[in-house]
Every structure is written in C-alpha cells, then in structure tokens.
Design brief:
The complex is a heterotrimer of chains A (about 350), B (about 240) and C (about 350).
Chain A (H helix, E strand, L loop, with lengths): L1 H17 L2 H19 L2 H28 L6 H25 L3 H37 L4 H24 L15 E3 L2 E3 L1 H23 L1 H11 L1 H6 L4 H22 L12 H14 L4 H21 L7 H13 L16
Antiparallel strand pairs in A: 1-2
Helix pairs in contact in A: 2-3, 2-12, 3-7, 3-8, 3-10, 3-11, 3-12, 4-5, 4-6, 4-10, 4-11, 5-10, 7-8, 8-10, 11-12
Chain B lengths: L2 E12 L2 E12 L3 E5 L6 H9 L6 E6 L2 E2 L5 H7 L1 E3 L12 H11 L9 H11 L15 H14 L4 E5 L7 H16 L3 E5 L3 H7 L2 E6 L2 E6 L1 H5 L2 H7 L7
Parallel strand pairs in B: 3-8, 3-9, 6-7, 7-8
Antiparallel strand pairs in B: 1-2, 1-4, 4-5, 9-10
Helix pairs in contact in B: 3-4, 3-5, 4-5
Chain C lengths: L1 H24 L3 H12 L9 H24 L9 H19 L3 H22 L5 H21 L1 H4 L5 E2 L10 H23 L1 H11 L1 H6 L4 H27 L1 E2 L6 H14 L5 H20 L6 H16 L3 H24 L1
Classes of the chains: A mainly alpha (about 350), B alpha/beta (about 240), C mainly alpha (about 350).
Bound molecules: adenosine-5'-diphosphate and magnesium ion.
C-alpha cells in the first residue's frame, strides 16, 4: 500500500517534470531527432550535432558574460569572426609549407595550431576589450548599465566588422578542410575528420569548462559574482580579476568555435552575424545566465535549424527559430529552463 | 467611523518564504494607522500587496468600499491610494518639480488637478522641500529624496497615503518637522498608514497600531495597549527598539 | 515721432508673437536659421550639384529616422533594435502597392506607415512584459524575422535581386526630392516633439526612468509603451515609403541590423532624449562619412569604423552627446549674459 503510493508519487513527479516547458521541449527534440534521422538521413543529424556543439560554446560564453558582468554582448559573433580569421592566417601558410615539405606530424599539428592561436588571440582580445571599454564605462557610470554596455558592444561590433574589412577585405578567406584524411565511418555514416574534431573539441571544452566552473576555486568565484556581486566582494573576491577572466574566457570560447568551424564558415567581415543570432536564440530560449541550459540549447537550436532548412527550405533556418522564440518569450519570458537570474528583470 | 481600507487574511509568499501570513486589518477614515515590527517582518511586503505592486497569494483587499484585490498600482493610485517607498524611487533625470508633476497629472482622474504645475509647486512647499524645484533628482540626498517622494505621493490627491519608513535616518529636529507635516496631511483629510521604527514618531502620531512579526499579526490596539503587550516585548527582545 | 514708435512697437509685438509661436512648436531661433539654411542650401554651390544633393537627401532621411529613433530610446528607454526592419516593412508595403496595384506612392507611403505602425503595436505588446534589454532583443528578433521573410518570399519581394519601384516624380533631379524629405523631416520633428513635450512625454520619461515609481504615480506603463512603439514604427514606415520611391530599388538589405546601428549611432551621438540632437548632427556626419567614402575608396569600411568608435567614445566619455554640449554652452552663455546685465544694471 505504502509502496504503491510512493511509486505513484514518483510517477506523478516524473509526469509533472515532463509536462514543464523544459520537459516538453526535450521530448519534442528527441522525437525530432528520431524523425530526422529516419527521414532526412543520419548525415543531417550529424551536421546538427556538430554545429550544435559550436553553438553551445558560443551560447555558454554569451550567457557567462551576461551572468557575471551583466553585459548583453552584441559583439559576441565578432569574436567568432576573429577566431576564423586567426586560424585562417595561421593555418594557410602552414598548409602551403606542408605541401612542399610533407610531414605527418606537422599536418596533424597544423590545424590545432590554428585553433589554439585563435583561442589565445580571442582571450587576449577579450582582456583588451574589458580593460579598454567596459572597465572605462564601469568606472564612470553604472547607471543603466545593461543597456549602456549593450550599446558599447554594438559599437565594438561595428568596429571589429569593419576593421576586418579595412585590413583584410571582404573576400572569403576559407579552407576546404583542415585534414586531408579519409572520412570516419560511423554506423555507415561518413563523417569528415573536420566535423569529428570539431565535435570532439566542443565536447571536451565544455567538459573542462564545466569542471572549471564547478570544481575550481576561480570557477566558484565566478559563479559567486554571478549570483551576488556585493556578497562576492565581501568574501574577498577580486571583482576586477573575475571580470577580466570572464571576458577572456567567453571570447576565447567564441574564437575557438569560429576556428573549429573554419571549413564551414570561411572568414569574412560579417561571418559573426549568424553565430551571434544563434547564440542569442539559445540564450533567450533557455534563459539568460543559465550556463547549463545554454549547452543543451545549443544543440536544440542547431537541430531546429537543420530540420527547418531540410523540410522547409534553405534560407528559412533563421526565420523559423526566430518566430518560435518570439512565441516562447511571449508565454514564458524567463526562457524555457529559466530561472530568474540577477539582472534579467531589472532595468 | 467608516473603514477606508479593509485587508483580510492577506498572504504573500516568495518561493518557500511566507513573507506575509494571513494578516487582517481595518483602517478607519481620518486616522493615522501604524504598522510596526522588526526588520524583515513583512511590513513592506504587506504594503506592496495592498497597493498593487504585486498580487497577494491569498486574501481580500477592500478600498473605499470596493474590492480591489490584485489591482495594478497605477489603478490603485488613480482610485486614491498612494504610497512612498522605503528606498525613495525618484525619476533621476527629471527635476523635483517634474517628479511631482508625474503624479499630479497621472495619479488621478483627468481634470482632478487643474494646473498640475502650480499644484506640484504647492505640494513641494507643503512638504517643505528644501531645494529649488528645478533641481534634478539625481542631485538630491536621501533626506531630500524622501521629502520629494512624499510630495509626489501627495500630488495625486490621495484619500489614503501609505508611508514606508519615512522617518528613517532623520535627526531629531527633522523628525519634529516631519511629524508636523504628517499631522498637517491628516488634518487635510487624508488617512495615513505608516510603517515606522522610531518610537517617538509612532507614539506621537498613531491612533492605532498593528504589530507584525515573522509575517503574522501579533498585536493590535492603541499605542499604549500595544506597548504593554507582553507578546510585543518578546518579539522585540534583542532588538534595539524596545517599547 | 509717436507714429514711428507705434510702428516699431507693432513690429516688436509681431516679432514676439512669431517667437512665441516658434517656441510653442519647439523651434528656437537658431533652429529656424538652420531650417532656412537647409531650405536654400540646394541653390548654393557646391550643394546644387546632383551628387551633393543626393547626400543631402540621404542625410535628411537619416536625420528624420534619428528623431523617430530617439522618440523611443531617449524617452521610454527601450532600444528598438529592429528599427530598420520596420522602415523596410513600410517601404515594401508602399512599393508593393505601387508595383502590384498601381497605387500612388503618395498614398502608399501612408498605408506603409499604417502597416508599420500596426506591426509596431504588435511588437510593443510582445515586448511589454520584458524589460530594457530584453525588449530590445525581442524587437531585434522581430526585425530579423521580417528580414528573413523579405529575403525568402522571393515571389513577392524578388528577394536579394531587388524590387524596382516607381518613383514619386518623373524627374531625374534630386532637388524636388530634397524638399519632399525636408518637409517630412520637419513634420516628424514637429509631431514627435509636440508629443514629447506634452504630458505624454512626461509619462514616457517616467516609465523610462523608474517604472515602479511611474506605476505608483498612476502612469500605466503598458499603454504608454505600446503607444510609443506604435508611433515610432509608423514614422519609420512612412520614411521607408520615401526611401522606396526615392531610390527606386528595394532589397532586403535595407532591413539589416547594420542600418539600425547607423541610425542608433547618430541618435546617440546627437544626444539621447533631445529629439533634435540626432537630426542636427546627421547632416555634417553623413557629409563627412560620404566624403570619406568617396575620397578614400581604397579603405572600404573606414567610415563605419569611425561610426563605431564614435559611438563607443560618446557612450563612455560624454553620454549626453551633442545635445548636452549645446545645453551646457547655452547655460554658460545665459549665465554670462545675466552676469553682465547685473553689472550694468
Ligand atoms: N521581492 C522579494 N523576493 C524575495 N523575498 C522578498 C522580497 N521582498 C521581501 N522579501 C522577503 O520577505 C520578508 C519580508 O520583507 P519586508 O516586507 O521587506 O520586511 P520589512 O519591511 O518588515 O522589513 C523578508 O524576509 C524579505 O527578505
Ligand atoms: Mg520594509
């Protein structure tokens, strides 16, 4: 008797969880994955997962900067762009050199060199931006910080996009692939090495990042600042340091995503625009400041886009998610997995 | 004596925390009604539930004889209930005069205030606002902001005025001024509910008092009755305000 | 003797009357001088050259947009980040009416204004429960969705290939167009300035600066926010109509976020909450940018870098923009005058 009532409460609880917005979304996406795998073929699915990993990297960074620094970063896509550019500039000469002097070691290392350089430059740029722009505003005025910092990032985005155009022009600077090797065969699906590595990098990075946030002292400090800035300062956390670090991390992740996807997104001034939309879709979808949600959301949005362009047509993959997100915001303004994070509801 | 405000079994929860738990009270027309209790007792939350800042989770509010439970605060203001904030809420980029004008223009049915600007100046004078009316609100200090908040609340010609810790942080001299102003407001026919910590103000002004502790009403009566209530003394034990 | 006195007194009264009318309209004597200067500029060399006239038209169009932009940003403190899309929506509405139904551009542009206003109303309702930045992002998403529609509904809009649109006039000269947009600019200014200096403007500022206090003072934020959004978008749509029937070609690119950013930068550098600031600096700014663009063809993108840098610098170091600078000067001059008057008196 007692046991059955316990069981029924568990069933009830599971049912309740499943009928929340988050639960319904997850169920729907699992269904979507199965349907798309059957109808559209597994390749579509693989594509969705690879881009999903990168969207997750971007969204996590965007979410982190908002949570910790209260900055809705409109220039986030531009760090993606910097990533593609740096990797292109590092990888292409190496690749040329390799063609004349084949070396198996170097050809394995070269792509990573490009991606790693992007990561470093991204981090460095993040520090510069924090010190030169956000810090300056913070020092002068904190009133209407969210909106004003947003406008600063708008300016920054314009400068970075057109700085790229000024220095490197508008032509596509891309590569066909990082690795000249045969595709990997996974359950009968051919996955190119580039895609496999991109996915691997995304998963590993997110795992490391997760560990860093949850388990290390610095990671805890970052989360503390996100939750309560004054409290964090009171226990002796150096706010400046955390802000610099957060900005660096976020930009590095975005740049790394750009570099890893160079084979899909050749570098040109406005290449960051689409990743920017997407990161924002994700972040709004799951609730700003929700870093865990951002990881899942990245995959969700990628899946949605892939399915849209497969079933409705290429070109619609931005329209449909936008419409969907507008609807979600209408009915659940705090996002699908939303908890009301500091800064979200205040002006 | 007619009741201007009746609150019945008001409950307000924040997540798991029950900030106000089944508080009932009746405020009569023309009186100064005190709401006291230790910090975090739920006084501000109670005011917010009445004034429409948010909906109470349960309970009924009747204002001027009609049920107003869950009405928005702009509607409550238009109906004749205005309030000040524990932490003053100015419009920082507007002048003091414009701050008051917002409420003179919008806080009432259209046409109730003929000349909003003149009326707002009058309100600033009434509360003895110490600065020129064209001073921008972000140049005012806390004490001046509280005066401005009071003028703003009065400018809508309220029938009931809710004051949240208006006297906090004032010097003795300023306290006397403020008490005189509050009496003047009452004498002009406005009923007042005031949340206050300072005993001199409460004992000197209030006709009746309700004591809230941990979200619950623990005592009600005249200042003398409440002062001698053992439950109240217990609630405040360890606090610095001992009745 | 007496007669001359009455004449001069009458003239003085007339002048005063004119001044007070101007004042009621929100035009200072300096502003009037600038408007007159703009009106005769197309006849003063070198501005009578067609290429410079084209710049003038472009600048006036941006100026009017900056006013509409500031009407929302500077008052209710919500950035309509989808602004360009609302402009484009009006432009496409008017253009398609002319192309598909042969409706006159002069009527079409008002229908476009209505259409954009309606969409603005819808967006205003949509963003209501969201605060500040979220409302901006939501408006942005609505704009992106519109842009996507314009790109993808090729059957209707011809997508990126561009829709060729009948122009207002047969003439190849830019001068008449300049007068059309100048009148539109003036109307935009007068109407929006009239709204913002009325009690409605007070409500806008109140909800923009402290929504809680505004509510407690009896202001209904829902109404004023939606009203503001609707009006702004209607003006955007109206100006979009001019765009369509002036340039004669429409591409979805018009609705792009970068266009919003351009208007935003000008409105901010001009001065938030001033209404006139953005319009004032639009002319020198656009001329400078166009000059830069035409003389430094080897450095594409430089002008936009300047846009961005200027926006950043103003935001950090001088958030009040040019308008604040003007008020500061005016204050100084006023004080100096009063000072000297006291000394002599
Ligand atoms: N917006 C809110 N969200 C969560 N908890 C709140 C909120 N406002 C007040 N509280 C909590 O409710 C309780 C009562 O607060 P309050 O009404 O401000 O007390 P008082 O005004 O009597 O000092 C406190 O524990 C406070 O932390
Ligand atoms: Mg309180």
């Amino acid at each position: 008797m007692a046991r059955s009532s316990v069981q029924s409460t568990i069933v009830f609880e599971v049912l309740r969880r499943l009928t929340t917005a988050a639960g319904i979304t997850i169920i729907l996406s699992v269904v979507a994955v199965i349907v798309s795998a059957v109808v559209a073929g597994p390749f579509t699915l693989v594509n969705a997962i690879v881009t999903g990993g990168m969207w997750a990297l971007l969204a996590v960074g965007l979410s982190l900067v908002f949570g910790v620094m209260n900055i809705p970063n409109f220039a986030h896509g531009e760090f993606f762009m910097v990533g593609t550019l740096v990797s292109y500039l590092v990888f292409t000469p190496l690749h040329k050199y390799l063609r004349q002097n084949p070396s198996s070691v170097l050809s394995t290392v070269a792509p990573f060199a490009g991606i790693f350089a992007a990561l470093l430059v991204g981090a460095l740029l993040g520090v510069v931006v924090e010190k030169l722009i956000f810090f300056q505003l913070r020092r002068r005025s904190r009133e209407q910080w969210v909106m004003n910092s947003f406008l600063l990032t708008v300016g920054l985005s314009v400068v970075m996009i057109n700085g790229h155009q000024l220095l490197w022009g508008t032509n596509f600077k891309g590569i066909p692939r990082y690795w000249d090797v045969k595709p990997i065969d996974l359950f009968g699906v051919n996955i190119s090495m580039d895609r496999a590595v991109a996915l691997g990098l995304a998963v590993v990075t997110i795992a490391i990042f997760w560990f860093f946030l949850m388990r290390t002292r610095t990671g805890r400090a970052i989360r503390a600042v996100a939750q309560d800035e004054t409290g964090a300062q009171m226990v002796g956390i150096d706010l400046n340091r955390i802000q610099v670090l957060t900005m660096a991390l976020s930009s590095a992740l975005a740049a790394m995503a750009g570099a890893s996807l160079l084979f899909m997104f050749p570098s040109y001034p406005t290449v960051g625009l689409k990743p920017l939309y997407v990161a924002w879709y994700v972040v709004i979808l799951v609730g700003l400041g929700n870093v865990a949600g951002a990881t899942i959301g990245g995959f969700l949005v990628a899946l949605l886009q892939t399915l849209t362009s497969y079933f409705i047509g290429v070109g619609w993959e931005d329209v449909v998610p936008t419409a969907l997100i507008i609807l979600i915001l209408l009915f659940k303004p705090s996002g699908l997995f939303g908890s009301e994070v500091k800064g979200v509801w205040e002006q | 004596m007619t009741a201007i405000l009746e609150a019945k079994d008001i409950v307000k929860r924040f997540g798991g925390l029950v900030a106000v738990n089944r508080v009932s009270l009746t405020v009569n027309e023309g009186e100064i009604f005190g709401l006291i209790g230790p910090n975090g007792a739920g006084k501000t939350t109670f005011l917010n539930s009445i004034a429409g800042t948010f909906k109470p989770n349960a309970g009924v509010v009747r204002f001027l004889g009609r049920e107003t439970t869950g009405f928005r605060s702009d509607v409550m203001c238009k109906l004749g209930m205005s309030r000040t904030f524990q932490i003053s809420q100015p419009f920082p980029k507007l002048t003091a005069l414009e701050n008051v004008m917002v409420s003179a223009v919008f806080g009432n049915e259209r046409g109730a205030v003929r000349d909003p600007e003149a009326w707002s100046r009058q309100m600033l004078d009434f509360v003895e606002f110490p600065m020129p009316p064209d001073t921008r609100a972000d140049n005012l200090n806390t004490v001046q902001l509280k005066r401005l908040d009071l003028a703003r609340a009065l400018a809508s010609k309220p029938k009931l005025l809710l004051l949240d810790e208006l006297a906090a942080g004032l010097t003795t001299g300023e306290l006397d001024d403020l008490m005189a102003i509050i009496r003047k407001i009452r004498d002009s026919g406005v009923t007042i509910v005031m949340v206050e910590h300072i005993m001199r103000v409460i004992m000197g002004l209030c006709d009746r008092i309700v004591v809230i502790h941990y979200g619950e009403k623990i005592a009600e009566g005249t200042p003398e009755e409440v002062a001698h209530d053992p439950k109240v003394a217990e609630a405040y034990l360890g606090e610095k305000y001992i009745l | 003797m007496q007669k001359t006195e009455t004449v001069s007194a009458r003239a003085g009264r007339l002048g005063n009357g004119l001044l007070s009318i101007l004042n009621a309209l929100g035009i200072t004597p300096l502003g009037l001088a600038l408007i007159i200067l703009l009106a005769i500029l197309p006849f003063i060399p070198p501005f009578d050259r067609e290429d410079l006239l084209r710049w003038l038209v472009g600048a006036a169009l941006i100026a009017a947009q900056a006013i509409a932009f500031d009407f929302t940003t500077g008052y209710i403190n919500v950035v309509n980040f989808g602004f360009a899309a609302f402009l484009g929506f009006g432009a496409y509405t008017s253009a398609l009416l002319a192309v598909d139904f042969g409706i006159s551009p002069w009527i079409g542009m008002f229908v476009g204004a209505l259409a954009s206003g309606g969409l603005g109303f819808f967006t205003g309702v949509l963003t209501l429960r969201l605060r500040g930045i979220f409302a901006a992002v939501m408006a942005w998403f609505v704009g992106l969705a519109l842009l996507g529609l314009a790109r993808n509904l090729v059957d209707i809009t011809r997508g990126p290939m561009g829709l060729s649109v009948p122009t207002f006039l047969e003439t190849a000269s830019n001068r008449p167009y300049f007068y059309i947009i100048l009148v539109m600019l003036l109307i935009t200014y007068l109407v929006l300035r009239w709204i913002t200096s009325s009690h409605i403007g007070l409500a806008f500022k109140a909800i923009g600066q402290n929504i809680e206090a505004a509510r407690a003072s009896g202001v209904n934020p829902t109404f004023y926010r939606v009203f503001n959004f609707t009006v702004q978008c209607a003006f955007a749509g109206w100006l979009g109509g001019f765009y369509a029937h002036y340039y004669g070609i429409l591409t979805p690119q018009l609705m792009h976020t970068s266009h919003t950013v351009e208007v935003l930068a000008i409105a901010y550098v001009g001065g938030r909450g001033s209404i006139w600031g953005g319009a004032f600096i639009a002319f020198p700014f656009i001329f400078f940018i166009e000059w830069l663009r035409s003389s430094l063809t080897s450095l594409p993108g430089l002008h936009l870098v300047i846009y961005g840098l200027l926006l950043i610098l103003v935001m950090i170091f001088y958030p009040g923009g040019v308008a604040q600078f003007y008020y500061w000067i005016a204050d100084r001059v006023g004080k100096a005058r009063r000072g000297s008057a006291e000394q002599s008196g």
